[in-house]
Design a protein that fits this description.
This protein is of the alpha+beta class. It contains ten helices and eleven strands. The chain folds into two domains: 85 residues, Phosphorylase Kinase, domain 1 (2-Layer Sandwich), CATH 3.30.200.20; 240 residues, Aminoglycoside 3'-phosphotransferase, Chain: A, domain 2, CATH 3.90.1200.10. Strands 1-2-3-5-4 form a five-stranded antiparallel beta sheet, with helices on one face. Strand 4 and strand 5 form a beta hairpin. The longest helix has 24 residues.
């Protein structure tokens, strides 16, 4: 047992009850750690947020729970230590559902849940929450894409800096376009299949701490162009149907959000591998790259950006080789 696990177990023992067993479980890409704790015949999940502020997570939890959104219940928390004991929703995420029919049933339920988030959480209702005081901006989007330029293209693929200047300009244009028509709505920020748990045949939301206001197509593109689970050719029809309920939105705005979100994601996966040694994220890069070739067929405005990305991926190899991304989810790692 690590020292950190011992601290968590000691706190649970003192404040919640005797611990029979504690085991780490896979978490997200944040600095938080998660443990499944067995006690008196029941299991709970303990989140250790001691390395990152807990209060935004608790603040947005109170907002969502107060509006009866399906979340894991909080049983005990200590903001000063960064610990939370919460209900155990099991191990099944939306991305883990193998049966395509059942997966699409839960996908549609997730879309309905997203609609609720966007319609019911108004600026007035969220005004006292941190989520109501944070917004996406084009500068924010560009900062995310700068990380992709550095960690994927420059560090992992070893693309020369002068070759990246053109893509940087295209990313700046994309960041402006991804803001859409100016209409904003409540945005979870990571509304994808790995953050949607299936518990008692119902979809539950997790990982909400980064919620803010932003383009309505942002969370929609996170779900339908999800790096963790491909919903197949239905994405365009599902996106078009959903967008009909958003005043002023269109499929082009969805594509702008999806391309920005996908490129931000591959940058995160590259960082997780290169800086933190987490190679489990590498397999998601090829699938995400396959998505982007669809976008220029729907929206000609992004074709220069898509073509430039694909050309660089096919031209350069450094620490990894992604040239076979269309046919393989296993990038070739190159020993340097």
């Amino acid at each position: 047992m690590t020292e950190r696990m011992e601290d968590v177990a000691r706190w649970v023992n003192e404040h919640y009850g005797s611990v029979n067993a504690i085991a780490p479980i896979a978490g997200d890409a944040s600095a938080r750690d998660f443990y499944r704790v067995e006690r008196n015949g029941e299991s709970v999940i303990v989140m250790d947020s001691s390395r990152t502020p807990l209060w935004p997570w608790l603040d947005i939890y109170n907002l969502l729970k107060g509006m009866d959104f399906p979340l894991p219940g909080v049983l005990l928390s200590d903001e000063s230590l960064g610990y939370v004991i919460q209900e155990d929703l099991g191990t099944t995420r939306l991305c883990d559902i193998e049966d395509q029919g059942i997966y699409h049933e839960y996908l549609n339920e997730s879309l309905s849940l997203l609609r609720r988030l966007q319609r019911e959480i108004t600026p007035e209702i969220s005004s006292n929450s941190i989520s109501g005081r944070r917004y996406f901006t084009s500068s924010f989007f560009m900062a995310e894409l700068e990380q992709t330029l550095e960690h994927l293209f420059f560090r992992l693929l070893r693309v020369p800096v002068d070759e990246l200047s053109g893509l940087q300009v295209l990313f700046r244009e994309l960041s402006e376009r991804a803001m859409g028509s100016g209409i904003t709505s409540f945005t979870h920020r990571d509304f994808h299949s790995a953050n949607l748990m299936i518990h008692k045949e119902k979809v539950h939301i997790i990982d909400w701490q980064d919620a803010r206001y932003g383009p309505p197509c942002y969370d929609l593109s996170s779900l339908l162009r999800d790096s963790y689970r491909d919903c197949g050719d239905t994405w365009k029809g599902l996106a078009s149907s959903y967008i009909l309920g958003i005043s002023g939105a269109n499929l082009f705005e969805f594509v702008f959000s999806a391309l920005q979100r996908n490129m931000k994601a591959v940058g995160t996966f590259a960082y997780q591998y290169r800086a933190l040694g987490k190679d489990k994220y590498l397999k998601y890069i090829p699938q995400t790259l396959r998505y982007i070739e669809d976008y220029s067929k729907v929206c000609p405005a992004v074709k220069p950006t898509v073509d430039t990305i694909i050309n660089l991926v096919e031209m350069y190899t450094g620490e990894i080789d992604l040239r076979d991304f269309r046919d393989s989810n296993s990038p070739v790692r190159i020993n340097l």
